[in-house]
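Q: What would this chain look like folded?
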Amino acid sequence: HNIPSMTLPTLIILGSSGFAGITCYNVLHKYFRILLIDTKAYFEYSPSILDALCDGEGYYRSISFPMKHEFSGKKVNAEFICSAATEVDFLERQVLLANGETLTYDYLMICTGSSYNFEIKYTDGDISYTQRCKSVHQMQQQLKEAKTVWIEGAGGVGVEYSAAIWEKFNAANSNTQQNKQITLEYRSNVLPRCPPAAQKYVTSWMTQRNIRVIASSEVNAEEKDGADLLIRCHGSTPNTSFLANQNCLDEFGQILVNDHLQVEGVSNVFAIGDCIRLQGEEKKMCTARFQAKWTSNNLLRFMKGNSMKKYSPRPFKYNFSLGHNDGVGLSQKKLQFKGKITKISRILVRRRVLSLFSSLKGTAEK
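A: My prediction, written as structure tokens:
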């Protein structure tokens, strides 16, 4: 690898193309020789993926970019490798990759995230940026052609996707007979973790726009099976299969961590984001970035022999869009807000994140 031979310790970041991985890189790249490892060769701003699946490839390119593979500069000692980790040996401090390489580390940061039943996030066929752009275009075409769309799961993803589909295909269509028939199916409630006021607001918003909101117990199986497009917006799975031989996973495949977000029993390995077990905290973009900053600073303290700070889960908050001009949210100060302010706040956050991450923007492969 084209990393200068220096006395800096080696840090491997697994899952380096996501929010947590890039945040870790931004904090730590001056202090380590860094190997960035990911199964996909691009970054995408996942909170806006649902809009991209409705609006198509052009919008997707505005919220994503190919990862930089080559780094230059006196204070930059890094390289990006597009491959999957197949095994980690904590004792030997080694990571085995699907491309056949074996990498040795001094410190390891695991932020490999999770996968979904539907292609909201990266899938095995979307390794390159060009392939992912094509997949987004194909999914938009599926939506265009579908007359009946069934959304299974009424958490944040299901709610936002239902609203995005209505906004794109139904809102401006004066001929209601040509509108898509959208069904949102919930198990216990719409936005089950949110306060009743938010649930009521969202349910009312949906029904006013002829989006059917229905409980799983009332579903007609034949009607559901007959939908042109069934989208499952639930059932995330931690991307941790490469740790199957290590005694650090719970029954759901989540990584067990201590109060400092170190993998239990392994002092030089940290884990953050959707792949860890952490009670009382939502698995969201803002959480992953916060954990990444916290853990990166803890790693620096640990490396210098200083005491680390214990991590405390952040208070529950949310910000869900309902189309382009509405939404519902709850701030860290327990202030509930709704309407256009939710969309404005999301736009501002997106612009800031894409700007902060731009140092890793590369050129798409041909």
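The mean pLDDT is 88.
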